[in-house]
Amino acid sequence: MAFLKTLFIILLVYYLLKILARWFAPKIFSYAAKKTEERFRENFGDFANQRGNDEEQIGDVIIDKKPAKKNAASKKVGEYIEFEELD
Fold this sequence. Notes:
Helices cover 56% and strands 0% of the residues. By secondary structure, the chain is mainly α. The protein has a domain at 1-41. 0% of the residues are buried.
């Protein structure tokens, strides 16, 4: 009888924790996400302000330099030698 009583208590505690987790887990995760966002903004928020806003708008594309053009035909690989078949 003690075994059944212990098993009943374990199952009752398990289901009680399961129900409480459904109610409070979203709130706990929301709180953790909010705290993580605050820490992220504290640590990395300064980088956005350090960059000068010299007539730059969000979404503007700025190209600092033109990429060097590579000419594959100018590379000298070697001399072409034609072979003849011998009979």
